[in-house]
Design a protein that fits this description.
Length: 378
């Protein structure tokens, strides 16, 4: 047809052969990466358990030093894409070097868990997993981008950056059981602070009832209340009786925050000045038990905070405070069996139990209280 462009069969054939060759190299790169990734995941399974106590513990500085090398390797991977598309050989060499480094990093990280309790083990596991996941995502993107015409000048540098951040966070990982447990307690404290902040936003209902207002005013008020409910998502207005329970609940939650802070101070004292003849790491099991009780207490604080919103669930408030009292007794028993400067913690636990008792009395319905009083022998 006149004016039609006729392609050169020879040129077209060369183009097809070139595309087939690139596709084959890309497939080879994908197989190489998958093989390395499989090996890395198999090595990662050793983290299911801490290293055996009989092994020599790897110093954490060795782990962070290799983390710095991984960060540099991520930079090298990103630089391969700053100019022209890298050749397959460069990418394959980079994949091999990078993945061997990751396997070595996992073995060192696991070696640092000798003597680690569940909390420290979980911290090291999470830090190592973040580096592995970010690194494999970077390599996967680099491999899938080979031979592609798409612009990778933003995606690959961003993934390299995620590896840098993970390697930087590695240096902030707790290195002892006491530090790891202290950090976990701090997370509980943050959650409790949020509950206190939310509860302090509660406010008493406006004085006077809607029924006493003129019809027009009443309709306007109802409309505003509906608008407020849609904006805030939850009505916070409490009756005087409900407000009293809310104040008592805030006292309980505030005292819960105090006993968490005192527990953190107690653990800090074990790190800085352990009792004579006692190694702080010997406290691993009792401190892990203590942390478990505090985490359960944090769950109950969340439950208690939810109960004070109208309509208040008084029976659930009383059941929750009873659970919290039992947990507090268990914490006291645990602390009494441990040496160290625990006077401040013991006093705060007693004050907390007093706040719980006041809330239990304050949330007791009058009818129930009369029945209880009537059942007492004179």
């Amino acid at each position: 047809r006149e004016g039609a462009v006729v392609s050169d069969p020879e040129t077209q054939g060369k183009k097809t052969r070139g595309e087939m060759a690139r596709a084959a190299r890309k497939k080879h790169l994908a197989r190489t990466l998958n093989s390395h990734a499989q090996s890395i995941h198999e090595v990662f399974q050793v983290f299911d358990q801490p290293a055996a106590p009989s092994l020599e513990k790897v110093d954490w500085s060795e782990v962070t030093k290799l983390g710095d090398e991984i960060s540099k390797q991520a930079t090298i991977t990103g630089m391969l894409w700053t100019g022209e598309t890298p050749n397959a050989r460069e990418l394959e060499d980079n994949i091999g070097t990078y993945c061997n480094m990751l396997q070595g990093f996992l073995l060192l990280s696991h070696g640092s868990t000798v003597g680690a309790g569940p909390t420290l083990q979980a911290c090291i596991h999470a830090s190592a997993k973040q580096i592995i996941d970010c690194s494999l995502s970077l390599l996967q993107e680099a491999t899938s981008s080979y031979g592609s015409c798409s612009d990778k000048k933003t995606t690959i540098p961003r993934l390299s950056g995620s590896v840098w951040e993970a390697c930087s966070a590695l240096k902030k990982t707790p290195t002892t059981n006491c530090m790891a447990i202290g950090r976990a307690l701090t997370q509980v404290a943050v959650s409790v602070k949020d509950v206190i902040r939310e509860m302090r936003e509660l406010k008493p209902a406006a004085i006077g009832s809607v029924d006493e207002m003129p019809a027009e005013t009443s309709n306007t008020c109802e409309s505003n209340e509906e608008d407020g409910a849609s904006e805030d998502g939850l009505g916070n207005d409490l009756s005087p009786e409900e407000m009293n329970i809310a104040h008592l609940t805030i006292d309980v939650v505030s005292d819960a925050l105090v006993i968490i802070k005192e527990a953190i101070r107690f653990i800090t004292s074990l790190i800085k000045k352990p009792p004579q003849g006692v190694v702080s790491e010997n406290y691993v099991h009792p401190l892990e038990s203590l942390l478990k009780h505090y985490q359960e207490l944090g769950v109950q604080v969340d439950e208690l905070g939810a109960c004070v919103y109208p309509p208040q669930e008084v029976s659930l408030i009383r059941a929750t405070t009873e659970k919290m009292l039992n947990i507090t007794n268990e914490i006291q028993a645990e602390v009494q069996n441990m040496e160290g400067s625990s006077e401040g913690l013991v006093r705060s636990l007693q004050a907390f139990k007093g706040s719980l008792g006041k809330l239990q009395l304050g949330s007791c319905p009058d009818t129930g209280l009369v029945q209880e009083m009537g059942s007492l022998a004179v």
